Fold:
Amino acid sequence: MNSAAASGAAGLAAVETVAAGEPLLVANFIEWRDAARALLAHAIAPDAITWAGQDGAADLLMSAPVPAATPAQARVSIPRSLMDMLQNAACCRQHDRWAFLYRVVWRWTHGEHDVQSAADVDGARLHQMAKAVRREEHDMHAYIRFRERPEEAGAPRFVAWFEPAHDVLAQVAEHFVARMGKVSWLIATPDASVMWDGATLHNTGALVNSGAELVDSGEALWLTYYRSIFNPARLNAQLLQSHIPSRFWKNLPEGAVVPEMISNAAMGARRTGQMEAVGSRRGTTIPIAPAAAQPGRAQPSSLDQCRRCDLWQHATQAVAGVGPATARIMVVGEQPGDQEDLQGKPFVGPAGQLLERVFGDAGVARRTIYLTNAVKHFKWEPRGKRRLHKTPAQQEIEACSYWYEKELETVQPEVIVALGSTALKAVLGTNHVALKDTLGTPIRHQGRWVVTVYHPSYVLRVPDQAAKDQAFKVMVEGLKMAQGLLDQAAAPGL
Ligand code: URA
Structure:
């Protein structure tokens, strides 16, 4: 069967799937394109289709009733420029990408040519998706690091591990084919790998679970070189870190030494570097006082360098607490979630939004609260393409208590609100107290009040609406109780 016939057959199968009311599973752009051609030819409207992505998750939970497919029309034609954009945007990992792309072509084929313009709402999104993919390709070219392997028959000479945010492996592989000539290499990612044997590209599926499995001895040499070219006098840590987004650091060999070099630089290596450089220039005078030349700097934070347990290895970054150091209430959650891990701030995802509502209903101003987590790195396990939260183990809570204690020392809160049982374990330093036995009753612990409430994720998860409302109320009452304890302490005579 030639490929045109094959794509025709795939398209027809797609029409039948939709007509049967089943979700339509597409794994890549080619499959989507074949299905979209047939669906357009049968005039099947976007809202009649439930698209499902590679991991089988339906893009839309419900689809409209399926109309009978109309007889096929002539093949639709899409301009090359739009097709290129669709192909690019198809690599952007968004849960509804196939449905969105179909809506775009549907609109275009129905005369709405503005859909290709950035001034249109769908057009703007299309442009953004294509841009995000181009950016990811660029980042992958820039931040991938090949490690040389000992020579071995049939094995690639260089290997690299990368965790792309979008599906750009195929394009990036073409780039390295052109760039690295006949040298053999392998690029592994969490979902797929490609190998170039010097003449042919092979798709080799997902081979390893992490870059750690690919590390080699040549790395020591590279790190020595990197250290030797690092000039603390020229360091602009912010620029350095903003040039390389934090999610790439953990897979860069130099990522292991940069935090240490930055803090050494801030603590004196920069001064030494300057003294050596300036001192070697004969006859130079510096017309400013040393104090002005060395203005006070913020203490380097070493939470980013924390290796007290293994969670840092799979997290994008450590997430420190936020809020005023004068806060009288400290709210302690469990650990950052997916959004928090990416943004580097606690409670910015769905649990954070629920928490905002709790604060609002309890009449507590969020800006007065210090908000943190018992564990500062995101612990997760892969599920399809998603990162699912995994409850931290006791030893991880204990390892991270070091940071929690530092926060307590700095903030000195009068009341601590523990969200859920992990936070309760961290706050009391024991796992012998059950959350359900403490709800509604404040505990006196080390000179402070501890109030316990449910974790917002629990409230989000409870399926039954009445139970959800009840759990939400427990949270609001807990926050009111925390505020009340402060008011009591402030009342005259207490
Ligand atoms: N859940 C938490 O416990 N903390 C966060 O920061 C986000 C979700």
Notes: Residues 25 and 52 are 5 Å apart (CA to CA). Confidence is low (pLDDT under 50) at residues 55-68, 290-300. The two ends are 87 Å apart (CA to CA). The chain has four domains: 3-123, 144-205, 217-270, 303-489.
